[in-house]
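FAQ: What does a ligand-bound record look like?

Like this one, built around zinc ion:
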Amino acid sequence: MGVVITVAPTGPIATTAENSTLPTQPLEIAAAVHAAYLEGAAVAHLHFRDENERPTADLGIARDTIAAIEERCPILIQVSTGVGLSVSFEDRERLVELRPRMATLNPCTMSFGSGEFRNPPDGVRRLAARMQELGVKPELEIYDTGHLDACLRMRDEGLLDGPLQFSIVLGVAGGAAATPDNLLTLVRRLPEGAVWQIIAIGKANLELTAIGLALGGNARAGMEDTLYLRKGEMTQGNTPLVARTAQLIRDLDLSVASVDETVSLLGLPV
Ligand code: KMH
Ligand code: ZN
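The answer part, i.e. the structure of the complex:
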């Protein structure tokens, strides 16, 4: 069984002022995703930015970016419905109408740094139901133990189909801290048959990604989660982060999952 690498090239927060190699425009994102695919990434987690680098749920920009990626490689597209704190939930949820293979589903409203990440219970249920209708697989982003329980309630209500796909997001100010202890607590509580990866934000990115791999998880890599390759060294684009993750997987005597293998591992509708 291979390990799925998801590349998250852009995210909603980082700017080119912080790291000039951050891809923000459709063709830049497509080039970064293609390079990541060549290094072994099977999934691309996408956020979109407008021409001023602001996070956007603009369907035209999203469509152009996805088309540019699809011209270059068969990587599986996972659209973020988190988009960015400044964008309304109603605009964010419309992105699933593009019918990507996957989209994120953030189960709970929470503090997020100095802002608020709005995921109201009725909106989240409406979005889960629409994703189910369209055959878009949810990637459940859980930032704390209560978020896992909220997902299990939606599963019990028939809004989520197995295998459940979780991202354990640690290190957001407002969610659980990026510690091995918190990762273990959440992994132990995942339901039978779940597939998962750790998303470790910031300084603990490398260590927690390695621990996640050793525990049997998948891996995420990219500038959404860290702008650094190691302490004091900025990454030059996404490729070094993805290449390092692929190397880590091989060093642990594991293999990197192909796109076809990922479709079956994640239980994606074919
Ligand atoms: N950057 C993540 C911590 C999503 O993509 O749906 C939050 C996020 C959620 O971007
Ligand atoms: Zn994201």
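Follow-up question: can I read anything off the structure? Yes, for example: The domain at 5-265 is CATH 3.20.20.70 (TIM Barrel).
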